[in-house]
Design goal:
The chain is an alpha/beta fold and about 350 residues long. It folds into 2 domains: about 5-165 and about 345-360, Rossmann fold, CATH 3.40.50.2000; about 175-340, Glycogen Phosphorylase B (Rossmann fold), CATH 3.40.50.2000. The chain contains 15 helices and 13 strands. Residues about 195-200 have low confidence and may be disordered.
């Protein structure tokens, strides 16, 4: 196959994990891949941690609609010049409004990935401008129709996105040394809620849900280690001030999947790490602060997630799990094994689609 030029926009930690694998797959076929990102604490540091070379263009818009609009407009102007000069055969993003708009404006086909129809704003700004939409099979095609795409443009793969980087994952114990954790003592890991995402603006509580959960747990017992993975520096500072030495707050970017693997229990207020933990066989609780989304419902129905947003009830359930950890973990691992053995590799489906779209455009 002729060498292709592929433009990839990486906006979140999840996209870093997903697109790093996709880029390697495409580059192994002799294609050129231009990777870009934006100024965003977690992503820039994770890219550096993984040794991924990506050009930083623009910045995250913060927690207001006006800020998001200004940042997006500025990023479009900067990216437009870059994309026009590089002249890719195809652009790929996980519903990046800037990349979808630039690709459409310059006549470059855009391949969109998305597993979050509940994030309506970015879906409306990207899916109608895309040649193809790639999404997990557990999300029915009809969930996307209201965003202006027909069934023939939707390609589904039999897996969750996280399986793209977990299928050949090997945990690294260095993460325990980095955080000063003792593997012989239970580890309960918390992921904070997303406070700046457009789809959650005005919906997240002013006081993070996980703080009262942690406080109630620590009152019940101190015979475990508590780890908090914040999303932003402001969250890290707030958790450090409130919890002090009672918890380990990750101030630097860590190997997330490895930490999850060694965790005894995971409590997530978001989507990606909750799915990762569940697929790794870790007893997983979700306290996502809005209505359960489709992927979360799927994992709940599979018995891989317990949903609980009430701090007191959640603390009691977590304590019960800690008291029978060995049997619960074994059951969770078996459920995860049975599910993932039916999965295909999302990267193969995505790479094949990207190549087909690019070749048909030439």
């Amino acid at each position: 196959m002729t060498s292709l030029r592929v433009f990839v926009d990486i906006l979140t930690p999840k996209q870093c994990m997903l697109f790093s694998r996709l880029s390697k797959r495409l580059e192994s076929e002799g294609h050129q891949v231009l990777k870009v990102t934006r100024e965003y604490r977690e992503v820039v540091r994770l890219l550096a941690l993984k040794g991924i070379d990506a050009k930083v263009v623009g910045k995250h818009g913060g927690g207001t609609l006006a800020g998001k609009l200004r940042a997006s407009a500025g990023r479009i102007l900067k990216l437009a010049s870059l994309v026009k000069e590089w002249n890719p055969d195809v652009a790929v993003s996980f519903s990046s409004p800037e990349t979808a708009r630039i690709a459409f404006g310059l006549g470059t086909p855009h391949v969109c990935l998305n597993d979050s129809p509940h994030a309506e704003a970015v879906a409306r700004l990207t899916i109608p401008l895309s040649k193809k939409l790639l999404t997990p099979k557990v999300i029915p095609k009809r969930a996307w129709f209201s965003f202006g795409i027909s069934a023939d443009k939707i390609i589904q793969y039999n897996a969750l996105d996280a399986w793209a980087w977990l299928r050949d994952f090997e945990p690294d114990e260095d993460v325990l040394k980095q955080l000063g954790l003792d593997r012989s003592k239970p580890i309960v890991t918390f992921r904070t809620e997303e406070t700046f995402a457009a789809y959650l603006l005005g919906k997240t509580p002013k006081k993070p849900l996980v703080i009262p959960m942690i406080e109630k747990l620590l009152k019940a017992s101190r015979d475990f280690q508590t780890v908090v993975i914040p999303r932003y520096e402001k969250q890290a500072v707030a958790f450090q001030e409130i919890l002090g030495k009672r918890a380990i707050v990750c101030e630097s970017i860590i190997d997330g999947p490895s930490l999850l693997f060694f965790s005894s229990i995971f409590v997530g207020a978001g989507g990606t790490m909750t799915a990762e933990a569940a697929l790794l066989g870790v007893p997983t609780f979700s306290c996502y602060p809005d209505e359960p989304f489709l992927i979360e419902k799927y994992l709940i129905n599979r018995g891989l997630i317990i949903r609980e947003t009430d701090p007191e009830k959640a603390a009691k359930k977590i304590m019960r799990t800690l008291n029978s950890l060995e049997s619960v973990r074994a059951a969770q691992e078996e459920k995860a094994r049975r599910l993932t053995q039916t999965f295909e590799d999302p990267i193969e489906v995505i790479a094949s689609t990207v190549e087909d779209v690019a070749c048909s455009h030439r």
